[in-house]
Amino acid sequence: MLDNSVAPNVWYINDRRAMEARPISAKEFTDVDSAPEANHLLDFLIKIDEMRELSEIRAHTFQDIPSGMGVDIGCGAGGVVAELTARGYDVVGVDASSAAVAQAHKRFPHCRFMVGNSYRLPFGSGSLAWYRAERVFIHLSDPVQAFAEAYRVLAQGGRITLVDPDFDSVVYSSTNTPVTRAVVRSMADSIGNGKAGSRSPQQLASAGFSEISTRIIPLTFTDLDTALTTLIQPSIRTALEGDAISHGEACELLDELTGQYLRGAFLASVSMFITTATRCR
User: Fold this and answer.
1) pLDDT for residue 25 is more than 90
2) What is the reported pTM?
């Protein structure tokens, strides 16, 4: 096992319970208000939103937003709504978590936020010009219903923009293929809609949307600390919880990835799908 003093931010814990408790699981974001440490989850979301790699992907989505009032679904602590407002967009942030909305109001009192459910939005039919959701549909157990609701609130000609990964597309530079496959599969299967990115185009078409377009942009990590926090640790925790890998296999995988990082050879990636569509009728 590598010396932690060489890579001080890489966690190595021999006790399995501590190893599992350390990272945040993606499943916790399905119901933030019921989580034991909701504020901790929101702080984590803020850090994710501020990642340079995601900011670059997010910039692509702003190009697809038309004029008129729109909604940012799953706005979390409000950072993206504040950015959209600063760019001159007429936007309301909506999140199912009252804790998230309260924090968003506190951080950005000049912006508009509402508590709302993606299955039943607090807007009239045909009242919105655009609808945006980033890393939201991966958590939805019934995306078909959410797309129907998006169709309802959008006016004719309204645009929808989605950003979601397909967690089956995760790649690690590890040479241990069986373990990495088990980790990737566990993560993809544990989330309500883990393949949201690749499935959204067909679901949008079924909901009545047209002019559907998808761009795939790799979210690539060469910095181990960032990859550990956002991708590797949550995935390993999920695999451990499901007994898909052993504690020893988890440690071996982390050792290998850390060694690669110290040699300048580390890589982790997940494909992000940016899908846009129009309500034409």
Assistant:
1) no
2) 0.86
